[in-house]
From TrEMBL:
The chain crosses the membrane at residues 25-42, 54-72, 84-108. Residues 31-108 form the Potassium channel domain. Its main location: membrane. It is a multi-pass membrane protein. The lineage of its organism: Bacteria, Bacillati, Actinomycetota, Actinomycetes, Micrococcales. GO terms for cellular component: voltage-gated potassium channel complex. One of its GO terms (molecular function) is voltage-gated potassium channel activity. It is found in: Membrane. This is Two pore domain potassium channel family protein. One of its GO terms (biological process) is action potential. Keywords: Coiled coil, Ion channel, Ion transport, Membrane, Transmembrane, Transmembrane helix, Transport. The keyword Lyase does not apply. CDD domains: bZIP (cd14686).
Length: 147
């Protein structure tokens, strides 16, 4: 029983560390993706007559696109810019999926921990009741000859 408790604690710690790494990698990857997409779109759109003509506009467009807000104030007009936009939109959907999965994992772990604590307490109570039943049976056996 203690082995299972130790194993559960180690597993919980590993899950927390893994979730932390996923968050760090996701945030870092997202920042890099926004900056890279902004620069690629800026390179493709500059001089094409489109709205995206400077780094600020390009990064703003990339940020708005990856968050799936899509204001429409800036948009690519070249084929390269539109291909990058599609990739960034897919990246935004994936980002929402990772955030949702991480949050769901955390909630499930919390509920599982609470359930394990309650189960452990219940098992201890059952064992106490079994001991008490054994004692009562022994008392009955001792009193039976007197009846």
């Amino acid at each position: 029983m203690r082995f299972l408790t130790i194993l559960a604690l180690l597993n919980r710690g590993a899950g927390t560390r893994l979730r932390g790494k996923v968050v760090v990698y996701t945030v870092g990857g997202t920042v890099l993706l926004v900056l890279l997409a902004g620069l690629v779109v800026l390179d493709a759109e500059r001089g094409s007559g489109g709205d995206i003509q400077n780094v600020g506009d390009a990064v703003w467009w990339a940020f708005v696109t990856i968050t799936t807000v899509g204001y429409g104030d800036y948009f690519p007009v070249t084929l390269t810019g539109r291909v990058v936009a599609v990739g960034l939109m897919i990246g935004g959907i994936a980002l929402i999926g990772v955030v949702t999965a991480t949050l769901a994992s955390w909630i499930v772990e919390r509920v599982s921990d609470d359930t394990q604590r309650k189960t452990h307490a219940t098992e201890a109570q059952v064992e106490e009741l079994r001991d008490e039943i054994r004692e009562l049976k022994a008392m009955i056996q001792e009193l039976r000859p007197a009846l």
